[in-house]
Design goal:
Growth Hormone, Chain: A; two-stranded antiparallel ribbon; 5 helices
Length: 140
C-alpha cells in the first residue's frame, strides 16, 4: 500500500513539474533556418549510405513532387524503416538520423486522395531509391 502511495506521489510531482516548466504540448513549427539545417543533415547522412551493398531488396520509390510532398515524404520514411532493419550496425545510425531529421516535416493532418499510396509506386533497387530520395530532399 505504501509503495502505491509513493509511486502515485512521484507521478504527480513529475506531472506538476512538467506543467510548471512549460513543456510544449504541441509541436512547434520549424523556422526556415531550422528546416534547411535538418534537410542538409538528412542529405549528408543519405550521402553516407550511397555505397551500401543492397541490391537484393526492392524499395517503393515515389517520384511525386508538388502537392503530394507529404505523401512522398511519408513513403520515403516508411521505406527507410525497411532499410534500417537490413543495414549493418555501422550504417544504421545514419538511417536513424535521417528519420529523426525529417520527422518534423511530416503533417499528420495531411490528406490528399489524389496522391499515390506508397505501395502503388514502382519498386526499385537501392541505388535508384537513394537517387530519388536525394533529389526529393534537395527539392524541399
Amino acid at each position: 500500500m505504501m509503495c502505491k502511495v509513493l509511486i502515485f506521489g512521484c507521478m504527480a510531482a513529475a506531472i506538476l513539474m512538467t506543467a510548471a516548466f512549460g513543456a510544449p504540448l504541441e509541436k512547434t513549427k520549424l523556422s526556415p533556418d531550422e528546416k534547411e539545417k535538418y534537410l542538409r543533415a538528412a542529405i549528408n547522412d543519405l550521402e553516407r549510405l550511397k555505397n551500401i551493398d543492397n541490391n537484393y531488396l526492392d524499395f517503393y520509390t515515389p517520384n511525386d513532387k508538388g502537392e503530394c510532398n507529404q505523401t512522398t515524404l511519408a513513403c520515403f520514411l516508411k521505406e527507410l524503416k525497411v532499410l534500417e532493419q537490413d543495414v549493418e550496425e555501422t550504417d544504421k545510425q545514419y538511417v536513424i538520423n535521417i528519420e529523426k531529421n525529417l520527422e518534423d516535416f511530416q503533417d499528420p493532418d495531411f490528406s490528399n486522395p489524389t496522391c499515390k499510396k506508397c505501395e502503388s509506386n514502382e519498386k526499385k533497387k537501392f541505388d535508384e531509391f537513394h537517387q530519388e530520395m536525394t533529389s526529393f530532399l534537395q527539392s524541399m
